[in-house]
Specification:
It comes from Desulfotomaculum copahuensis. This is MarR family transcriptional regulator. InterPro entries: YeaO-like. It is built from five helices and four strands. The chain is of the alpha/beta class. It has one domain. The chain has a four-stranded parallel beta sheet, covered by helices on one side. The radius of gyration is 14 Å and the shape is globular.
Length: 120
């Protein structure tokens, strides 16, 4: 099972393995308070894509398509996340304020589709 959570929310027992899926460490947050078990910065969108998106809601559909294309080229990282999600609960941690339109949402969908298709 894959959950999503803003990294600024306190960790919980139900989180399982907490995985930060951001390229940059979140501002103003200590590593102790974040309680991150794994930081996969290279699975995050490229800096150029992140800057282009800029969390503009009207760019969301195109951002999703572009980020999915980037994920298709990151097979090793995607496989690692799929394996971890297949073994138990994982929580993808993100820093964005918009909880419905951010890269972790796209990543979760992408991994869940892979798992549903029988891939790890």
């Amino acid at each position: 099972m894959i959950k999503l959570k803003r990294i600024y929310e306190p960790p919980g027992e139900a989180d399982g393995r907490r995985i930060l899926v951001e390229r940059l460490w979140p501002r103003g947050l200590s590593k102790e308070r974040a309680a991150v078990g794994l930081w996969l910065k290279d699975v995050a969108p490229s800096p150029g894509l992140r800057r282009w998106f800029g969390h503009e809601p009207d760019r969301w559909p195109e951002f999703k398509a572009r980020y999915r294309a980037e994920l298709a080229a990151k097979e090793e990282l995607v496989a690692e996340l799929a394996q971890l999600a297949g073994e138990g609960t994982v929580t993808f941690l993100f820093a964005a304020r918009d909880e419905k339109r951010n890269s972790a949402v796209v990543l979760k969908e992408y991994i869940e589709e892979r798992l549903a298709a029988g891939g790890r």
